[in-house]
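Task: sequence design from structure.
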């Protein structure tokens, strides 16, 4: 696929050119068009239905296209939710050698989505994909090890899986690793390390990490000794800034409301100390 795109080319012009290439039989152009619209990249407006339609046009010629179409049907984002079809498509994509599809299919087996529940086979597929280096599989398999409901609990190996995944900037792995250090689950508890990974999770696309970051700064920002309250204004200012971010970007409406309340509470603490 060759694009004549220049810095002055608009997203609409780019889509027109890609559509032309797709009409000429360029499957990579179809894949790119699907991803541009499904996610909303390079100035192209997010349009999941159109993105999923592009993946459907690949007609099974591309394992990546099969995987993305499976995701459309699994989530119902851009296509009718159909778990049985999603499961079959993930299986076909895995058979075609697309690494991410192995654990995506495995997760459906574990949950019994779209067909018979097959926990052991699902875990095997996720473990295999994790060992092969897929960041999503490393995260998903790490979660299973951390929870310990379907396999023996192993927080040490779970942490190792998350550490491998964050090399590829896997946002959920960073968030979970932050929680491990916050709770001291198999490691010495460390707010400093937790803060580092919550910040990375937010940077890589977890908007709900902002609230967690704000909470750590808030705890650092004040302490009590009997009737006396001591504050560290710099930390409270950071807490306010992160709560303000959470108040507008957290995906949970209740958490956004709590963040707004916490902004006022932190400001009250500063005013009382002054």
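Answer:
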């Amino acid at each position: 696929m060759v694009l004549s795109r220049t810095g002055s080319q608009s997203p609409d012009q780019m889509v027109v050119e890609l559509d032309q290439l797709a009409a000429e039989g360029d499957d990579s152009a179809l894949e790119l068009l699907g991803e541009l619209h499904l996610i909303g990249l390079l100035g192209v407006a997010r349009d999941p239905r159109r993105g999923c339609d592009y993946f459907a046009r690949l007609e099974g010629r591309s394992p990546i296209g099969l995987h993305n179409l499976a995701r459309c049907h699994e989530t119902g984002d851009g296509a009718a939710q159909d778990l049985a079809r999603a499961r079959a498509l993930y299986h076909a994509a895995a058979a075609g050698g697309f690494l991410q599809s192995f654990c995506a299919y495995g997760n459906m087996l574990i949950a019994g989505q779209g067909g018979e529940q097959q926990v052991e086979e699902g875990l095997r597929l996720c473990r295999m994909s994790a060992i092969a280096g897929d960041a999503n599989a490393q995260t998903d398999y790490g979660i299973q090890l951390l929870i310990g409901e379907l396999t023996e609990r192993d927080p040490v190996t779970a942490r190792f899986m998350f550490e491998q995944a964050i090399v590829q900037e896997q946002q959920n792995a960073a968030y979970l690793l932050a929680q491990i250090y916050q709770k001291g689950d198999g490691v010495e508890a460390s707010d400093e390390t937790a803060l580092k990974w919550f910040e990375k999770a937010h940077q890589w696309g977890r908007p709900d990490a902002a609230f967690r970051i704000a909470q750590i700064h808030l705890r650092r920002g004040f302490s009590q000794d009997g009737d006396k309250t001591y504050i560290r204004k710099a930390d409270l200012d950071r807490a306010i800034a992160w709560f303000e971010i959470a108040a507008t970007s957290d995906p949970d409406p209740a958490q956004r409301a709590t963040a707004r309340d916490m902004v006022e509470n932190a400001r009250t603490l500063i005013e009382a100390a002054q």
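The first helix runs from residue 11 to 23.
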